[in-house]
Amino acid sequence: MSGRRTFLKKASICVAAAGLLGLGGVQAAEPIRIGSVLSVTGPASFLGDPELKTLQMYVDEINAKGGIDGHKIELIHYDDGSDAKKAVNFVKRLIQRDKVHVIVGGTTSGASLAMIPEAEGAGVPFISLAGSVKIVEPVKKWVFKTPHTDKMAAAKIFEDMRRRGIKKVALISGSGGFDKSGRAESLALAPEYGIEIVADETYNNKDTDMTAQLTRIRATDAEAILNFGFGTGPAIVTKNARQLGIDLPLYQSHGVASKKFIELAGEAAEGVRLPAAALLVAEKLPDNDPQKPVLLAYKRKYEAKYGPVSTFGGHAYDGLFIALEAIDRANSLDRAKIRDEIERTRGFVGTGGVFNMSPEDHLGLDLSAFRMLEIRNGDWVLVE
């Protein structure tokens, strides 16, 4: 961790938030207004629910300590019900009526992509919690994100396949924005890793049976299966594949990086591999890993209050504290100054990795931030 005054370390680990923020000429009574549109209900609720709980947990904790230099944090949240159209209406409300200083979340790629024009048009810093690389590529002035991208996930998976000598892969993906983007990135990247996509199947995210698609995959010469999706779909794919007697290596994306997937897939999840943030294996990291203290502090705090942690709540943690550190450095609630400081984020040790943003990179993570995991005996195991 760098020598600079780190809000994350003080406010998150040590919980000593008071007195860090001067905010220039801002009146002491004015709250720091953080807006959030999350999918707390609907098909993406297993993503949005831990995100909201994380935001609320830390905002409440900081406010209980007196806020930041007399400024309480006001979290203004709307639940889009996993509906991108509702997300657009809510982000307009956050900008026009609630006058938020920064937005943390959209949950899903579809919602985030739909929200971007509003944030860009109004000049409000927007830190998305969704996976699609299209959120930050090409770079958009006011838009940032904290989760690893679908493009990074495909690359990490193909690296692992190449090490295992896998050259022919069957691709199956869902109908959501993240799923479609992941499919496109997988198709584009496969040739770079010497991998041939021998099947390209899709399903609707509300489908309850994928045996037809998997039966077609079984008839190919695929050496492994890659499923890009989130929600219940990947668990159904996993169970159906095992029910059909398909014993090929099965890869999932980071869209299933929570215990919920293991619960839904049951014994069929055994042996599934996926790239994910180190949060899922925090205790298993070496003691000299710079993320370990941050991960353990968040994990223990969250699980003491809510139960098993997920990487999705971790994305909200990263987004919140990247925003608060930017406000700290900006010494202002001016949106443009906050945006500039988010873009200057360097050496931020979060749950997703060590973030180093720049004008050319509004994510700030590389492939080293991803860990390849395998599910064994109902738990996560590092395989590299």
TrEMBL record:
Belongs to the leucine-binding protein family. The keyword Glycoprotein does not apply. CDD domains: PBP1_ABC_RPA1789-like (cd06333). PROSITE patterns: TAT. This is Amino acid/amide ABC transporter substrate-binding protein (HAAT family). InterPro entries: BCAA_transport, Leu-bd, Leu_Ile_Val-bd, Peripla_BP_I, TAT_signal. Residues 31-363 form the Leucine-binding protein domain. GO terms for biological process: amino acid transport. It comes from the Bacteria. Keywords: Amino-acid transport, Signal, Transport. Residues 1-28 form the signal peptide.
